[in-house]
Amino acid sequence: MTKDEIQSVALRDVQVADGFFSRYADLVREEVIPYQWEALNDRIPGAEKSGCIRNFRIAAGQETGEFTGMVFQDSDIGKWLEAVAYSLTTHPDAALERTADEVIELLEAAQREDGYLDTYFIVKDPKNRWKCLRDCHELYCAGHLLEGAVAYWQATGKDRFLNVMRRYVDYIATVFGRGEGQMRGYPGHEEIELALCKLYDVTGEKKYLDLAAYFIDERGRDPKYFLEERKTRGDAFHWEGNDAQGMEYFQAHAPVREQTEAVGHAVRAVYLYSGMADVAMRTGDEGLLETCRRLCRNIADKRLYVTGAIGSTYIGEAFTFDYDLPNDTAYAETCASVGLIFFMKRMLEADGAAEYGDMMERALYNTVLAGMAMDGKSFFYVNPLEVFPEADEKDPSKRHVKTVRQKWFACACCPPNVARLLADLGSYIYRRKGSAVTADLFIGSRLALPGGAELIQTSEVPFGGKVTFTLRGAAQGFSLRVRCPEWAEGVTCTAPCRKENGYIAIQKDWQDGDSVTLVFGMEPRRIYANPLVRQDAGKVCLMRGPLVYCLEEADNGANLHLLRLPEGEPVEAVRGEGALFGMTLLRAKGRRFVPHGSRLYAPDRQGREEEARLTFVPYFAWGNRDKGEMAVYVRE
Amino acid sequence: MTKDEIQSVALRDVQVADGFFSRYADLVREEVIPYQWEALNDRIPGAEKSGCIRNFRIAAGQETGEFTGMVFQDSDIGKWLEAVAYSLTTHPDAALERTADEVIELLEAAQREDGYLDTYFIVKDPKNRWKCLRDCHELYCAGHLLEGAVAYWQATGKDRFLNVMRRYVDYIATVFGRGEGQMRGYPGHEEIELALCKLYDVTGEKKYLDLAAYFIDERGRDPKYFLEERKTRGDAFHWEGNDAQGMEYFQAHAPVREQTEAVGHAVRAVYLYSGMADVAMRTGDEGLLETCRRLCRNIADKRLYVTGAIGSTYIGEAFTFDYDLPNDTAYAETCASVGLIFFMKRMLEADGAAEYGDMMERALYNTVLAGMAMDGKSFFYVNPLEVFPEADEKDPSKRHVKTVRQKWFACACCPPNVARLLADLGSYIYRRKGSAVTADLFIGSRLALPGGAELIQTSEVPFGGKVTFTLRGAAQGFSLRVRCPEWAEGVTCTAPCRKENGYIAIQKDWQDGDSVTLVFGMEPRRIYANPLVRQDAGKVCLMRGPLVYCLEEADNGANLHLLRLPEGEPVEAVRGEGALFGMTLLRAKGRRFVPHGSRLYAPDRQGREEEARLTFVPYFAWGNRDKGEMAVYVRE
């Protein structure tokens, strides 16, 4: 498949107008992007200093002082500029663009003669450039800046940032590779691979694709580069603590083509797999694509939370092993689900199987949206499926679990990742080849078609099942396929249709003004984890449409573990109120075990079950009321 | 209560001859003590070097070299000599005594002029003596050596070691206290408090009791000593990492009399509480005793595993919060249960309530015995109530859980602690005041009474319920009370008797040769944790007599979480075979969920339940066959 054969749509061709998602897109534009700009400039009272912009000023000689923040602090501005670029694409804003232009000028001023651009090593540790690829995130930061540069060029047509990054990447291409005098290194945190493919797509220069392919294929070979480089650093890494994680943490335990399980740091893993799929599509590398399918299968079948989260342990923020999906100690990082969506987008482009769309939707509607408060002002990094505030406060092994969303974190990875995904959401809804359109997501939007025609989608998802597609204008040979979501138990369609590879192909000769309406069954569903998932034995969770539901203390009182939802009890959909107004909640008759007695161990259960009305709220909306317990799974 | 009023018996007055425990006592004498001696002398091929004896030789100027091991390495020889002393008391052994005498000579040679005796600071870091009480274990090591010295004097009548330690303690008493020029410090790891009370008991010198009382009462006062001393060390602790634990880790968050919950490192906590009870009894300090009762209540009612283990998290090897008793990530250290037994012995002496005996028995028969393999050659430090080997190997948050017992550990705390407890077991069975005897444990033994009479106990516990007491000889005013164990649902007694404070007081005028037999009901019991213990919701465990039972993969196949023991199914006692020969196992008809289907999430359970024969083995005996899963709790 050449890059022109990859089915996708440009963000500029899609306008999102959705009853559910537009509010999130507005929040990103109106709250998150401006807030992050203040944060990057150290202007948030009481917040830890980011130092990000200041680091670039110091690197550019415009200010004196010391480097502030993490070794990967530069990535924040890359992610911010990427989100800004998407926002400018859909919502032009001269003042915001001016701000972005100014910061791009600053980046250019900070760039070294040779193209190098990483403020940590420019300002703080110039002698150790490229000396600890395992920990020091230089290629990771370069990747994020590069994604920002490509997006900014696509959004504005201005090439200053793109040129800065081309100079940097051209220099990187001289440093790394298998040629004489080159370093055989690869990044400790993957990211640049997928960014290089974006640069290849906009420039057409094969050397960028080659560099991405090099980083991917060099990874995990013997002798292990990360162990070799350690020797040059007095036998020490930048973050020696990471050592406990072993090479799996970095997905560098084996050459990528030999890897069969998703392992290590979950964000790194899915960024790598995204880059692998990008390269495989563009080079027609079927072996590499097969590796992507295999790793995706392992996640989908054995290492994925029902909420679309990944990463079972906070130690290394990592995958553990098959069917190990603890609810209360999960890491389930927001960024990892964002990365999973990146990966699934590419698998859709490469393979077009509907189940990739199902996974994308699962991660988007549940974990990613849960990552952000409904007012866009606070964020979860960690998205457990069960929360008991006393444990999260008093059990040190659950200290990573926050029971209320936090304003911003010193390590600002998740909020800007959510921002750039939601700002770019339009490009995830459709794939297109000429006038043949595939709709992967049910998000109200207008898609521009060749020749000035438009496809208009209106959608009630996630709370309703009705989705309508209307064609405006004449589109030669227009055809439409719609993903048949795994959650739809019944589907009706107003036009003749046929199921193909998980998609509903509409059998219709489309004319200007034609509409087709699909209605997906939205009955509440009891969902069971595979019996090999120990943590969920004897338990059930509820879903409706793409949404996973959960119990909250706000509706059900304390001690959620004493509740039970007996088999066979009907579950009904009801309207939410107050903070949950406009949402569909679920309600069922259940049982509450009412404890009496104070013995720690007794020959009787010390209590009895009573009838109780159970209320379930969408998982993405949890934690928007008072602090309290939450549980996705309930005993059946 | 004066020290003479404390009801206890000397080890030398008790001879253990028990069908169940004598084997363990033999193992300690024949396997553990000799093995540990080899370990202390670095003569175990392939094992990490202890360096313990060598450190003393270097300190004594008999060898040159560097200090080996942990900062608390000296404590090992204290615990070893204590176990040796108990062993010599019950089983004289001239060669072993000669070895002990030689090592005591070495300790004396290593002692400094001023009485100081800690090889880490003598050999490695002389400038920092007493500079980091929080982490450096000097007073802890002194306490263990002191316990050894008292025991050795009691066993042999030789006072060399006792005099060495008196010199050391006399010096310590000049260093610490509230007088002018004294340090207001106290130990980071409690232990010396209870040891000082032993020294007080054998010498009658009140200053030792005063020093113990000082350490206890100074603890946790403001300003916090550990924070003050930090300033003198360039604002750094010996183990900076401990800092994350906070003052609760050291039970130094508040003055001990204000403490209401058992917190922090579990071993430290129960050693402290033991010392507090010792001081309270000897000074008649009712307020301090009330604190002990309160802390004991908190453990008994809210922080104790059904196996008598304590310590819910490996992070800080610590208590967490009420009703938090995770089965698979428990720390449940063997040493902590040994310490709990120390504490309960003192509470029995102080208060005489049977429930202290129940807790002692629970810890002894389950966690402590599980800590040692049935051949005495390998040990568990951590005693979880659920083991899934794949998780313990692949989930880094369970790395502390070993699925097979280990030969010996670099930090040799648990094996010598088990050894010194089992070697001293005779002193835990009875309390005596004149000829009034109380039997707290059911262990076959002979107790020497004043005037040459003897009380002989024969016992079938833990597998049978029959216990017989026989008086040999004439004992003026002899009376007998027997603890009525919480596990005995029915009791028969061949003599008239009366229940008093949890004890069965035999109403009898005893004559030479008289016997009384009690039979405790030994029906298998279903035991439920309090409903507020989240981890055990919907689950049950089995007990019979004092023994907790568990499922093992060896009998029940893999995936123990798929098993269920439905309510009402009868449980029968059966004979063990092979490695479990001589034991009573439990058997019941249960259900096994047999999985089919490979979907990670599905609207059905992907399997069906079949009838299954469940076999439960005593928890203390788990892990004596092939490596595999284990679970105490099973879904009901």
What does this structure look like?
The structure is a homodimer of 636-residue chains. With 636 residues, chain A is of the alpha+beta class. Chain A contains 19 helices and 22 strands. In chain A, the strands form three sheets. In chain A, strands 2, 13, 14, 15, 16, 17, 18, 20, 21 and 22 form a ten-stranded antiparallel β-sheet that branches. In chain A, strands 1-5-6-7-12-9 form a six-stranded antiparallel β-sheet, with no helix packed on it. In chain A, a hairpin with a 2-residue loop joins strand 3 (430-433) and strand 4. In chain A, helix 3 (75-90) packs parallel to helix 17 (414-423) and helix 7 (138-156) packs parallel to helix 9 (192-203). The longest helix of chain A is centred in the N-terminal third of the chain and has 20 residues, at 21-40. Chain A is globular, with a radius of gyration of 25 Å. The mean pLDDT of chain A is 94.
List the keywords.
homodimer; 636 residues; alpha+beta; 10-stranded antiparallel sheet; 6-stranded antiparallel sheet; 36% helix; globular
